[in-house]
Amino acid sequence: MLSQTLQYLFSGLTNGAIYALAALGFSLIYNASGVINFAQGEFIMLGGVSAVMLTSAGVPLPLAIFLAVLITAAAGLLLEKLAIEPAGNAEVVSLIIITIGASIFFQGVAQVVFGKGQRALAPFTGDAPIMLAGASLLPQSLWMIGTGAVIVLALAWFFERTRLGKALLATAHNRLAAQLVGINTRHVLAVSFVLSAALGAIAGVVSAPITLTSYDVGIMLGLKGFVAATLGGLGSAVGAVAGGLILGLMEALAAGYISSAYKDAVPFVLIILILFFMPRGLFGARVTERV
Amino acid sequence: MRRTLLHTLSGLVMAGMLAAPAFAQAPIKIGSVLSVTGPGSFLGDPEIKTFELYIEKINAEGGVLGRKLQLINYDDGTDANKANGFTKRLIEEDKVDIIIGGTTTGSTMAMVPLVEKAEIPFISLAGAVVIIEPVKKWVFKTPHTDRMAAEKVFEDMKKRGITKFGLLSENSGFGQSGKKETHAVAGKYGMQIVADEMYGPKDADVTTQLTKIKNTPGVQAIFVFGFGQGPAVVTKNYGQLGIAVPMYQSHGVASEQYIKLSGKAADGVRLPAAALLVANALPGSDAQKPVVVGYEKAYKDRFKQEVSTFGGHAYDGLMIAVGAFKRAGSTDKAKVRDAIEQTKGFVGTGGVVNMSPTDHLGLDLSAFRMLEIRNGDWTLAK
Fold first, then answer.
1. pLDDT digits (tens, 9 = 90+) for A12-53
2. Contact between B208 and A8 using a beta-carbon 8 Å cutoff
3. Is domain B146-280+368-380 classified as CATH 3.40.630.10?
4. DSSP for A63-118?
5. Does ipTM exceed 0.85?
6. Domain map of chain B by residue range?
7. Do B204 and A4 touch (CB under 8 A)?
8. Which residues of A touch B41 (CB under 8 A)?
9. What predicted TM-score, i.e. pTM, was given to this entire model?
């Protein structure tokens, strides 16, 4: 009985870690621009897909990961330079719609370059499961959880301790005021897209051994990541991770103790309730909307 | 632009000069709606390639009834609504002589009312049994049904003394139709479904559902009904949990990709599949051997890709249509329909087809082979 519950928790943690990694990218870009980037799922896909292509071409894994992150960051930069920046001072809603278009474009390109099949990336440290009290966990799940923790710390350091990070936050709070104190706000937006693309790529690479990867894997990851980010509170890195883990655990426990037929419904109902009573999510800043 | 113009011109001139009297007549128009893109693309892609390959071949050999075959295909992007619209176009604007296709059950069912109304022969390439049950006058299909897959699995379970199993089905159209049919025929074979769980096609971890099945008292086997990457995740998790009872998969995973994605965990998994997958392992006496070996070679030579059963379904559909045109001696729709219904002893990649007014599929359980994955390859289960 204990081992059964433990297995449900492990399953929830595995899925939750994937959602958490996806949610972090949403948080970063929202923090910097107020934009919800619906191409975030595609950054994750690009990271995973590029890493698989590179390793199958014989590139060693660490170098492949590095290149995959670089490729995806370049895609993020292109998206910002070619689509977001020309839109100028368009409203946030318009920018969000642009990101939806970009996501479809990225999927199309990946479909042509990568093909329509699914592929798996080899796990970083083997696939012999770790046994604990009769339940099993894949080492890759630990990699995902560890990566998530490192990213949260890195983001906290970045936003609180670096000039660039503070500039990002300032721009998000008030673009005009940020310009007045000498921040190059255009530059800041580009940086935020590059960073969240790189973050997405890392998430994609670390989770690819478990989620498997294909040109359309970003749709699900993007959706669940967005839900997790909203649940935790948009803009909060800790919230993104908490939101992801909670979502994953809720799904697993719902499947285990209620019915796997309602697995997807139960968390979404809970999310509606949470957002109804806490509209800014669990860890969201308690601020009123700027008008 | 100039080039294409030149090509067209030279084509016209050639046609004018060489126009063999044999091709003086208008071509036979074969319409199709396939899911070449979208989630069903791994089905539609080999289907369209098969059509192109064999229509080219047939035309090079002189066509059918002295007329060339012309393929008019629309890609529905795995969207049933689009399939409906494109079918209308095939019937009203392109005025095709027959329609082959409808890659998914959803697309096919969206096309059925139109072809029934227009009274045009229609051979579907989709799986579910609802397409031909109840029998619809103008609708035929080539792939095995999910019910047959369940029956074949139960036959094998019986042989191994298994009577109680856990079902894990995908919450997709394919998985749910399979679940329904599994429930429908389990009783007939004396099988008992002791656990009934579901998973999503994009789930990354299903150890929860597998743990539940594993801990259900009396479970002797696990039967998974799904296709695409989901069953591969299930298989990996099955290996991760070290589950001892045997696993069965449906015909939905019958592709090389499944073995590659699942890795070592797939060893020992059994599934029903068409003879095409084990073309070279078939005994020389097998009636299907020459057909499947021939198709495999032609497809591999041309596209440098592994064959899948889905392309095989397209081959069967096209050849049944060609046979019917020949026997009908014309493209008269009613005559062609009757000829398709009278198809007897046609050896295709899916099996030996014997159609009748009450059976618009014409395959029996012998069309399925029980395969077992051994050392990363398909073998015939003993």
1. 999 899 899 889 888 888 877 778 889 999 999 999 999 999
2. yes
3. no
4. HHHHHHHHHHHHHHHHHIIIIIGGGTT--HHHHHHHHHHHHHHHHHHHHHHH-SS-
5. no
6. 27-145+292-363, 146-280+368-380
7. no
8. 116
9. 0.80
